Amino acid sequence: MASHRRPKQTSRARVTVLTATAAAAVALSAQAAQAAPAKQSVKSVKAKVDALYEQAEQATEKFNGAKEKQQQLQKQVEDIQDEVAREQAGLNDLQDDLGTLASAQYRSGGIDPTLQLFLSADPDSYLDKASTLDQVSTKQAEGLQQIAEKKRTLNQQKAEAASKLSELDQTRTELGKKKKEVQGKLAEAQRLLNSLTAAQRAAVAAADARASRSNERVNLGNDTPASGRAAAALSAAQSKLGSPYVYGATGPSSFDCSGLTSWAYAQAGVSIPRTSQSQAYAGTHLSMSELMPGDLVIFYGDQHHVALYAGNGMVLHAPRTGTVVRYESINNMPFQFGVRI
Fold this sequence. Notes:
By secondary structure, this protein is an alpha+beta fold. It is built from seven helices and six strands, in the order αααααααββββββ. The chain has a six-stranded antiparallel β-sheet with strand order 1-6-2-3-4-5.
């Protein structure tokens, strides 16, 4: 009788094991694939946020510069307008004097000067008056001509100033639009950050907290300040550790980068320009090895960021939005040069 054997179970078991192993491998791969993008998204979003903050700071410094120029031009326009008003008042006085003189001459103008001399009871007095009248008329005519020329010049200057002011208004409007665009991108990046897991958000927040060491003791070494005023400026800035960064702010409760440095030096009795680009040329340029506490430090090729050198390779600055006035290593940003006021 032929024997009938059942198929071996080992091959089926082997298939089951292999299938389970493959499924586990696929699941693990899927989990890894899901985990990798999440990790990458944190880096990508943070890089995007940092880039957008830098763009916003660039736009802010340009905005500050345009605003400063606008204020200067506005003052020039007001001065010109005041001068024009004074000259116009002088012109009106001369016109009144000339009008009075013309009326007097008209009343006596019908008489020939020779006959007036003949009829005059005091010919010598008449000749003196006639001579004086001639001189006054000549001076008034010359004065009127000079004022008219001055008025034309001032009108030209006023028109030029108004043109520049209009141009700066347009620039300011354009920068304002750019700033709003950047802020929109920042909001988008923030939404991406908010989409991360709680643990990932906590890690990002912890990194930011470590960077903002405003209340921690920082080793600044024993470097000698550049001068008494530089020491006073640095001391003033140190009193604002922990103050928030705000676009366009110049203190005393919030600052942007150049707002902090200009405010600090103002407390030391020194007036420096408002923007980082202007502050970059407000004193003597220095290499990194020449820096002393209180010197300005200029960063980035376009000079859109400025800080105060604090000593021992550290700077004190207002970094960017979302941060506070804090110490940071001078090597964290692309150093350009120092400036000694």
